[in-house]
Amino acid sequence: MSLLPVPARKPVLVGTMMLAAAMALAACGTTAGRSAAEPTAQDVAVDVGADLTGKKICFGFSGSETEFWAAGIKSINDSLSASGATVIEHNSNEDPNKQLEQVRDCITQGVDGIVVIPEDGSSALTIIGEANDADVPIGIFNRPPADDTGAALVSVADNRDIARQTVEYLAAEAEGIGRKVQPLIMVGNLSDQNAVERRNGFFDAIDANPDLFEKPIEVQTNWDAATGQANLEAAMQANPDIDLLFTSSDFLFPQIQAVLEPLGKWKPAGEEGHVLMGGLDGDNRACNLIRDGYVDATGVQDLFLEAESLLAALGKAITDGQTQPDEQLVDAGFALTQANFADREQDMWGCVITPPGS
After folding, report:
1. Is the dihedral of CA 155, 301, 94, 358 positive or negative?
2. How far, in Å, CA of 152 to CA of 131, rounded?
3. How does 140-158 read in b/e, with b if 16+ C-beta sit within 10 Å?
4. What digits encode the pLDDT tens for the residues 29-40?
5. Chain mean position to CA 114
6. Which is it for strands 138-141 and 297-300: parallel, antiparallel or unpaired?
7. Where residue 352 falls among pLDDT bands split at 50, 70, 90?
8. What is the Cα–Cα distance from 294 to 181, expressed in whole angstroms?
9. pLDDT digits (tens, 9 = 90+) for 156-176
């Protein structure tokens, strides 16, 4: 599978067009007593670059439990519809066997292309194999297969480098503490290659600073909020002197706040008790938390770039008659930090759209 870096894409802002009621922010509450800032309204469709009128596209996803997935699902769906395609949508509700059956049903219906957000890297390989056997072009969005077996278009962030950049910023801030620092990482589900690469990026930055950091504490979340909160509570009880916390996904910040606040550790930068914090995804809540000083940095995936590059490549394959296109489309991403927030806020998708409700 060839690697194809994709140039950064600026989302198109539409000042007069408000997103529909379905785009209300999921679980929008307040952040430390402050209402979440209202981002600029944005059209979430991207340019597919092809007229897919009369074409049938199967779109399967495994759930919309985070702002990233909810916004990505809506962007893909709206973009395909705008291109003229008929979209056959399937939500497997995090069941990989159900997702496989849904894709097989789509193939039976004679679809012209498939887009999938798989449950994990292993199930992605199985689905790619089914599409290849049926000579139907397939695109994988954001969650990559476990290896490069089979032919697929894979749009994915450089999770390792984005995580490394984020934790490097935290490390630079940690130097001011004046002693060895105790880091903690909340690890995602390691059957998901994204979680693996984010953990790798965290350790790249930590291992590069052996004189600064104690041995990191790892907290398993399995991409589940309740699991993450319970395990973080246990870790904080056993190790109350955490100085730096990195979550492998921004969606866990409410659970982090619920654990740290009663301990007097949910404080903005500059206040006694502040824990250096970073995450990864670039959602609306993280944007507000950086703005308010509670979070120091987050790694940003360019959601619209990833959707556009994948759909444009799939659209071209369909119109050119390619049944097994095979490319990896890489989103380099970046770290949004307290230091560059004023300059780069508008480059983070969670700062410029109101995410769809999950």
Report:
1. negative
2. 9
3. bbbbbbbeeebbbbbbbbb
4. 333 333 334 444
5. 21
6. unpaired
7. confident
8. 18
9. 999 999 999 999 999 999 999
